[in-house]
Specification:
- This protein has one domain: Methylamine Dehydrogenase, Chain H (7 Propeller).
- It is built from one helix and 31 strands.
- The two termini are 27 Å apart.
- It is 3% helix and 53% strand.
Length: 401
């Protein structure tokens, strides 16, 4: 795995003093302003459905460094990843040093879909020098959404075709050295056909929410000393939940999903009050059609959700749109409410905030671009800057301490 391209963007847009101050702030805070993008090369969505494409290109990972703007970009080639599954197929430890990349499927021309699920995830180290391979770990069938615990010792991986969660232990040894990652086994959550897609871990490290997409609910589990167990609680949510997150203060569980997938009817975000005497769904907030992914800002003040909004429809469909949608929600006394709607490129996949919350990155699949938005005052605005990726950008995660 060798970087194919290391692109340092021009710095003339900022005065040198501003650049120096930004770099010093990043070093003093100890918060790397990094975002990883998983770029698929073998499956295209432009025709309105996943289609295997004949290509000599390989899947890749792009590292975006937002300690300066425009961000510095490095591309690391030949790291298999996929667009089939939630865009949270990448997990980064809170210290920013360890990465899990779900290798969810492999191409197989004998399969009706053109691919079959696998049971492997890549383990990688992350530093200023980029990504370093550290082997693979066995998971359940079709590893998908993944998350680390707040202390970084454990990670959970949702196995979409297996209906289970793999518990991974990846300790830090004395002196700060990374220990060897080991699997602590799998915990069954639902029947495989219900499509367990993503998993989120609360700031206390014990409460876990897992999105059961085809089942139409979030499953609650508890993680204690590396032992994961379902509580039996199921939260009824709007549509088919895909990405799931928990607010940094542990107050809210947040998910969104498509209903029937109709391109005209808006879908909704579901808000769960996890701090209520009896945790319960407290709101459904209208978004745009077919929500693909969402993320919450590190300070908990904003939610960014990306929606297809007709951009995933095939050519010739009268409702096909030239743009997807970025819906921004702002926290208020009652929860969250929609603050902005901004256009994106077609078929937006992953979305992420930088660690300082100043930027939002959105993957635009067919264009092979990542669009960058910046917070100015109380509004996000499209910067007009586009990061070009070697493949179709399909999964995304940021370093969030």
């Amino acid at each position: 795995m060798i970087p194919k391209e290391s692109q340092t963007m021009p710095l003339c847009a900022w005065p040198w003093l501003s650049i120096l101050l930004a770099l010093l702030t990043c070093i003093q805070d100890g918060n790397a302003q990094w975002i990883l993008s998983g770029n698929e090369a073998k499956i295209d969505l432009d025709s309105g459905a996943p289609v295997v494409v004949a290509t000599q290109e390989t899947d890749s990972i792009s590292l975006l460094d937002f300690s300066v703007f425009p961000p510095r970009v490095q591309h690391f080639m030949d790291i298999p990843n996929t667009v089939i599954g939630p865009p949270s197929n990448i997990a980064i430890s809170p210290d920013g040093q360890r990465v899990i990349i779900a290798n969810s499927l492999k191409l197989d021309p004998t399969a009706s879909s053109g691919w079959l699920p696998t049971n492997k995830a890549h383990l990688m180290g992350l530093s200023e020098d980029g990504l370093k391979p550290m082997g693979q770990i066995q998971t359940g069938l079709q590893p998908s959404g993944a998350s680390f615990t707040p202390d970084g010792r454990y990670a959970l991986i949702a196995n979409r075709a297996g209906g289970s969660i793999t518990v991974l232990e990846w300790p830090t040894m004395p002196g700060g050295q990374m220990g060897q990652a080991v699997s602590r086994g799998e915990v069954e959550v639902c029947p495989p056909e219900e499509s367990l897609s993503d998993v989120a871990i609360a700031p206390d490290g014990s409460l876990v929410l897992a999105s059961v997409q085809q089942g139409g609910y979030l499953a609650e589990l508890h993680l204690v000393d590396g032992q994961l167990a379902p509580s039996g609680r199921k939260y009824s949510v709007y549509g088919q939940p895909y990405r799931v997150v928990i607010s940094p203060d542990g107050r809210y569980g947040i998910t969104a999903g498509a209903g029937s997938g109709d391109p005209l009817d808006p879908d909704a975000l579901t808000l769960i009050d996890l701090k209520a005497s009896t945790p319960v769904v407290v709101d459904h907030i209208t978004l745009d059609p077919v929500t693909e992914s969402l993320e919450i800002s590190p300070d908990g003040k904003w939610i960014a959700a990306v929606c297809m909004a007709g951009s995933n429809l095939p050519p010739g469909d009268p409702h096909r749109s030239d743009h997807g949608s970025l819906v921004i929600l702002k926290r208020d006394r009652k929860g969250f409410s929609v603050s902005q709607r901004l256009p994106t490129g077609r078929i937006p996949e992953g979305v992420a905030f930088t660690a300082d919350g100043r930027y939002i990155a959105v993957q635009c699949h067919p264009a092979r671009e990542i669009w960058i938005y910046r917070l100015r005052g109380s509004r996000f605005r499209d910067t007009g800057h586009r990061v070009v990726t070697p493949g179709f950008p399909s999964s995304m995660r940021a370093v969030i301490p």
